[in-house]
Every structure is written in structure tokens, then in C-alpha cells.
Amino acid sequence: MLALLRSTAPFDAPLGPTSAEARRWLQDELSSPRYHAQPGLLERLQEWLGRLLSSAPSSGLPSVFLPIAVGLVLAVLVLVLVRVLRRDVGRSGRGRPSGVLDVPDVPAEVLRRQARDAVARGDWDTAVVDGMRSVARAAVERVVIDDAPGRTAHEVALAVAPRFPTEATALLAAADAFDAVRYGRRRATEDQARAVVALDDRMVAARPQRLVAEAAG
Question: What's the pLDDT at 41?
Fold first, then answer.
């Protein structure tokens, strides 16, 4: 406290201030703006709503407009908060939609080789992830599906399955394994890893079927 009083005292003030002088210096210091935080958004909104409610009877506006106005303000506030939360969660990396493949911008053959290498060294998790990514990248390269960003593993499986109907069950199983490893923090089994890599190999060798609409055209 003494240091605070000395830092606020004028340069020509006596070193031993009286009680009145000390009290005045302390009041001057505590009145500084740096000790008073600016009100936040919620506080300002609450203050604005309070003024709106108190002035409504004298404003001449129909009373039905008041709850509508308050509802609109609250809706806008909720929208802003949701967007802020989504942005913050996105930055933290913890809010990515479950199953998003986030396929690297490399050829399918590179991903396929990585998956096979992972199987060879017993890294089942990597084999599942890169194997499913290889399936998706190969489907784009063969123009089976378009290169739409943000697809989930199950969306890829459902989009590819009509062109490879005999692999529909295996595609969904591979998507389940991908989600469990990539987002569910579960470990893949050897059977899952080998099944995803084998699925990728079969689809490379298979010829995609034409859809009914394409055949009719």
C-alpha cells in the first residue's frame, strides 16, 4: 500500500503524507480507468434489454412488438455464440465432423503403398486409415465420385457402393473401422487392417458398374 501511495504522489509532495492526503491519493489512483473493466457483450445486452423494457410503456409502441424484438435479439445472440464456438472448436482440432477422411493431396497409389507398409510392420491403425483414404482417392481418380471436400468415410462408402455393389458391405465395414480409429480413439485389429487393404486391392482390379441413369443415357 505504501508503494502504491508513493507511486501516485506528486514529485513535490512531502514524503510523509497526512491521512487526508493519503486518502485523496488512493481515491485518485483507484478512479483510474485501468481499474474498471469494460462491460462484456452479455452485460451490455442485459443493460440494453433493461432500458428497452423500462421505456416500452412510454414509447407508444404496441406491446406485442416488445417480445418479438427481444426474441430477435436473443436469436441473433445465439447465432453469434454458435459461430464463435464452432470457430474456436475448429481451431482446437476437437470439433471435426466424425468420419471426415481429410485425404492428403497425394495419388491413391501412395496411400495404398503406405497402407501395405503399415500392415507389414504391424501398424494396424495406419493401415486402416490410409487404406480407406486410398479407396476414396482412387474413386476420385477413376471419376466414380467427385472430389468434394469434407466427405465422411460413410458418405464415401455410400457414394461408391452403387458402382461396386458386391463390395457394399465391405465398404461400410471399412468406414466403421476408419471412424473407430481416427475419431473413436480405438485400436484397429489385424483383421480390420487386412480387410481394408484387401478391399482397396479388389476395387482397383474391379470395373465400376454403370448406373441405371448412365445406361439409359
Answer: 59
pLDDT (0 to 100) of residue 161: 95
Residues of the chain with pLDDT under 70: 1-46, 48-99, 211-217
User: For the packed helices 108-120 and 190-205, what is the interaxial angle rounded to 10 degrees?
Assistant: 150
What are the domain boundaries of the chain?
A: 41-54+61-92, 108-216
Helix (H), strand (E), coil (C) string for the chain: CHHHHHHHCCCCCCCCCCHHHHHHHHHHHHCCHHHCCCCCHHHHHHHHHHHHHHHHHHHCCCCCHHHHHHHHHHHHHHHHHHHHHHHHHHHHCCCCCCCECCCCCCCHHHHHHHHHHHHHCCCHHHHHHHHHHHHHHHHHHCCCCCCCCCCEHHHHHHHHHHHCHHHHHHHHHHHHHHHHHHCCCCCCCHHHHHHHHHHHHHHHHCCCCCCHHHHHC
CA distance 100 to 152: 4
60 and 140 Cβ atoms separated by less than 8 Å: no
Burial of 198 (C-beta count, 10 Å sphere; 0-12/13-18/19+): middle
- Residue found by looking up cell 489385424 in the block: 190
Q: Using alpha carbons, select from 52, 40, 55, 45 the residue that is nearest to residue 76.
A: 45
For cell 507389414, the residue is 120
Position 113 scores a pLDDT of 97
